[in-house]
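Hi R.,

As promised, here are both runs. First protein below:
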Amino acid sequence: MNIKFRLILMNFMQFFIWGSWLITIGAYWFQNKHWSGAQFGAIFSTMGISAIFMPALTGIISDRFINAEKLYGTMHILAAAALFTLPLVNNPSTFFWVMLLNMLFYMPTLSLSITVAYSALKNSNIDVVQKYPPIRIWGTIGFIVALWVVSLSHNETSPNQFYIASAISLALGIYSFTLPKCPPLLIKTGNKSFINSLGLNAFVLFKTPRFAIFFAFSMLLGAALQLTNAYGDTFIHDFKNVAEYRGSIAVRYPAIIMSISQISETLFILAIPFFLRKFGIKYVMLFSMLAWVLRFGLFAFGDPAGGLWMIILSCIVYGMAFDFFNISGSLFVETQIAPEIRGSAQGLFMMMVNGFGALFGSFTSGVIIDKFFTYADHSKNWQGIWLSFSGYALAIAIIFPFVFRNKNDSVIKNIPVTA
């Protein structure tokens, strides 16, 4: 089977799993279980907690001890078991621990999937920067398909969303063992240093100023991503409490409206090679930050009626906000490091974005929303929430170009654009 098709199938299922519940779990939590908002914030923090150490740990393991594709498959099989258990839980505290277990297995698969893809492509002498984005686009398509399946089957508030995710996770886990072999490479170096013996080679990247700054901003933008995941669907659901919006399409099918964000990703992913070649990584990352400003700002003034165009435009802008940093960031790491530390370096990037960044975003936003933007009747001042998030992204965008310097930007800029 064609290597690119095999990686396309891997990416499709990888993000179908996440799309089955990530955007709709808020509706399940508040509409089905009626548990508290503070407890919901803790549920979303499981992504950050697990991503702080699991991607880096599994990256070290795949660099030194176990084939990446086998570790990847094992993680998905274990995650499938946890997802299957979630609907059986009727206590928010227990739900937290089961979700944490699921995320401990799932979060490292995000970086492991990149490691498997980059390794397989390079072993086949295929240009990673040029060919990976059209492969990765199918992950976004998988996410969209999952959202539509869950929404059109009216499972947005149903526990069935977790059963769907569990089934695909099990299938991907089994399929992963048929992927091209990605054996550890560090064992071939003969390096007996203390850092190498612990598999911590990638952490030396923090000693390089441009990498230290890159990872710091990865964390800050990871917080922005967490905000839109946690509150986007719930924001639209809340319009049902306003009579004039209650019967609108956006309120009836919020997950489908939110899926426009992923549809826009498919276009921006394909544009990444051109933008990297034309502008370089620094400006591509800056474009991402400015897109986050628009993403949140448009939400602040949108509504499901006359302001629906602003919500839709916000979803379109999301494609640039998310992909121009996350995917370009992983390509930046890949082009700047030795292949022997590919797994741990990608895990380190994921740790900063989905680990420390997500944790920072979850806890900080929860405190700020409860303290400043929640009324006595527990309703939310959504305009104030989104404007504060937009201001946060704007501050990052203003600071970034003055502190990030990348002398090796030409490594990414001088690439072919043709598919």
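And here is the second one, sequence first, then its structure tokens:
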Amino acid sequence: MNGVRIPHRVGRPRTRPGRVLADKAYANRAIRTWLRRHHVTATIAEPDDQIANRQRKGPTGVRPPAFDQTQYRRRNTVERAVNKLKAFRAVADRYDKRDYMYQATLDVATIKIWLRDLAQRC
């Protein structure tokens, strides 16, 4: 989280995101507690075993965490875009030593993906 910088028009950039979208692997108590303590909204799917354990406890079980289905679906779009970028070996393995060269590699890969998708639509 230390690398996050969200620029504002005026003042210093925000260093904390407003929302975190994560998969079921990040649905543990420590992560949810940390996010809650730092006032970050979490959209993390609950694993089946946690649901079963909560339901088994019945009325003494805790309330399920808040979950926004539409926000979670948007996460899939981002993951597919990242996977398209990782199809390029230079992006996935990060051969470039300097950050500006890696950014240029990302830009070229993004343009290739955009042109390929554009050609498929025509």
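A quick note on the second one: Helices lie at 29-37, 48-57, 69-86, 89-93, 99-121. Let me know what you think.

Best,
J.
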